[in-house]
Amino acid sequence: MDQYTAEKLKSIVGTQNFFDSKEDKLVYSYDGTPVYQQLPEAVLFPQDEEQISQILKLANQEKFNVVPRGSGTGLSGGSIPVENSVVVVMTRWNKILEVDGDNLTAWVQPGVVTGALQKEVEKLGLFYPPDPGSLNVCTIGGNVANNAGGLRGLKYGVTKNYVLGIEMILPNGELLKAGGKNMKDVAGYNLRDFIIGSEGTLGIVTKVLLKLIPKPSQAITLLIYFDKLVDAGKTVSDIIASHIVPSMMEFLDNTTINCVEDYTHIGLPRKSEAILLVEVDGRGAEVQEDAELIRKIAVKNNASALKGAANEAEANVLKTARRSAFSALARRMPTTILEDATVPRSELPVMIERVAKAAKMFDVMIGNFGHAGDGNLHPTCLTDERDSKALERVHKAFDFIFNEAIKLGGTITGEHGTGLAKKHFLEQVAGPAGVDMMKKIKLAIDHNNILNPGKIFTISPKCEGHMPTKREQIKDFHV
After folding, report:
1. What is the spatial distance between Cα 370 and Cα 100, in angstroms, rounded to a whole number?
2. Do 266 and 321 meet the contact criterion of CB atoms below 8 Å apart?
3. Which CA distances in Å does 21 have to 25, 26, 28?
């Protein structure tokens, strides 16, 4: 970045909100995705909408790129800087602006942490259901960018089901307002849903209107152990077929069980091939009836043991163990690559077997866990990126897994996004016409392709380039 551009950016955000030392840039050169890394030209913390607008207008004039960023917990490389880019960090935009009990809505800034929002509205007897595994760190803006899911997705849906309105700055610097508190509104194109899941390529979100619901008055949490993987898969299918809709139905395989037990020491059975964490919630006797039917289905499918949480505190311990799966697996090897292949729920038992097959075929260690109720698995490969041959086997294993998911009518990502990591698979899912349409939409809104270019798909060669590995970036770095 030339001195003129740097000085202009400082004049926009203030010198106290402009960082370009190598130490500062290194912090924002990666996200939760391993392997990829790129140093930005500078890191900016804008204070208001006008500053964001001026940054984007300057980017169009001076032809540099802008990459929006929240907490950096993304797992597809969506917030990794690209060549000739500045990172716009939104974590300081962390205010809950309004909770409207009459309309069951909340206006929030994009930097609000998901778990913090949940705690605040639950004090009022309200409920914000989306709960990504990183809910105590990830932000609402990032959730919107990737249409994040979570443990409660089976019953309650994902982020898009709770976004009523969005305000964001477009790539040309204009403010866009889409949606509102109306429960019905079909005036023109549904721009709100169009923006959700666009991974920061169409604008920088500055404000989000979220739908809230009444908090369930009762919940029952069950932990079910299986000696055989196939029995766990069959139990999931039978629960869904029985017309029960659990609020949560999570799966952990043996590798994940042992890593979680090493990490949490809560007494998980190390010899079990699989565990299901199931929760039903709601009001009245139906909750108890659903829990009892789930117990019967599990016993019929050879469950080796079944444990019910005695109280909310114990239920939270069990759920925390599930949410710690990624962290627990990451302790085993230097590099942890977590993906999210998703298939129709009826194909889940088959997909679980295909993931196990990939581990054997390519001689890699894979821990598998995920949202069994909605067919969203998280095969997680434990490896060492410094070993090029091992990394090559990992890529082949994931190629196999994604291709098998597509054959089963599935998709390459259920909640993490396409980003950098999976864009080469996009055409297999969306088709050439679909990808072409996405590119045309992008360029119609972002004429100069300055906002998070190279994510989801590639338009210009300058955005593709070589994305250095962490090792290549760090080897020449000295504090």
Report:
1. 33
2. yes
3. 6, 9, 11
CA-nearest of 120, 122, 140 to 130 is 140
Whole-angstrom Cα distance, residue 11 to residue 17? 10
- Summarize pLDDT for 370-420 with one digit per residue, the tens: 999 899 999 999 999 999 999 999 999 999 999 999 999 999 999 999 999
As a whole number of angstroms, the distance between CA 320 and CA 301 comes to 26
User: In this structure, how many other beta carbons lie within 10 angstroms of the beta carbon of residue 34?
Assistant: 22
Antiparallel, parallel or unpaired: β 85-89 and 65-69:
parallel
- What is the rounded CA–CA span in Å between residue 150 and residue 469? 29
Q: How far apart are CA 53 and CA 171, in angstroms?
A: 8
Q: Give the CA distances from residue 275 to residues 329, 434, 445, in Å, rounded to whole numbers and listed in that order.
A: 16, 38, 46
Residue 296 three-state SS: helix
What length does the chain have? 479
Whether the CA torsion 54, 24, 416, 294 is positive or negative: it is: negative
Q: For the residues of 423-458, what is the DSSP string, one character each? A: GGGHHHHHHHHHHHHHHHHHHHH-TT--BSTTSSS-
pLDDT by residue (tens digit) across 215-263? 999 999 999 999 998 899 899 989 999 999 999 999 999 999 999 999 9
Confirm if 264 and 379 have CB atoms less than 8 A apart. no
Question: What single DSSP character describes residue 100?
Answer: E
pLDDT digits (tens, 9 = 90+) for 123-176: 999 999 999 989 999 999 999 999 999 999 999 999 999 999 999 999 999 999
Regarding beta strands 18-19 and 42-44, do their DSSP bridges make them parallel or antiparallel, or are they unpaired? antiparallel
Q: What is the pTM of this model?
A: 0.92
